[in-house]
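Action item from last week, closing it out:
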Amino acid sequence: MTRSDDALLHAVADVYAEWDPAPADLVDGVLARLAVRDLEAEFELFTLVQNVDTGIGTRHGEAAETSASVALEFAGSTYRVLVRITDLGEGDRRLDGWVVPAFSMRVFLGPPGDALAHTRQSAYADREGRFEFPAPMHGEVRLWLLPQVASGDDGPPPFVTPPFLI
């Protein structure tokens, strides 16, 4: 590009800026549209709530054992899901979860993607929205929450978390 080309492009930009300026909220609007585009691919918001070591005391003066616990929160427009992963020692873990609002649903835990869908574990959320996986699979996983509604009833939509590690 020559100097005259550069000057011409700046002149055109100045004309557009004066006669047809971009809306003030253009950048925010585009980012918001991109954020909600293809939600199934991007899934929901994910935050680390806490990473704590909890001492589990035993009775009669025995030595206290320690287990590490991590709590994760997934939040979307329909649900909030709290997951606590507890390291029980010797490579064993436990996953406890709560979904709000509480709704009868089936919860699947498994690796991301459909190729390994046959390896998913499942549980049911109770009336209080609590579910558990006493011996969850290890590695990168995600949760699929599928509301159980009577045919013909409109229920909340399914919910899928982003991947996380167990």
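Closing note: The chain has two domains: 3-36, 44-165.
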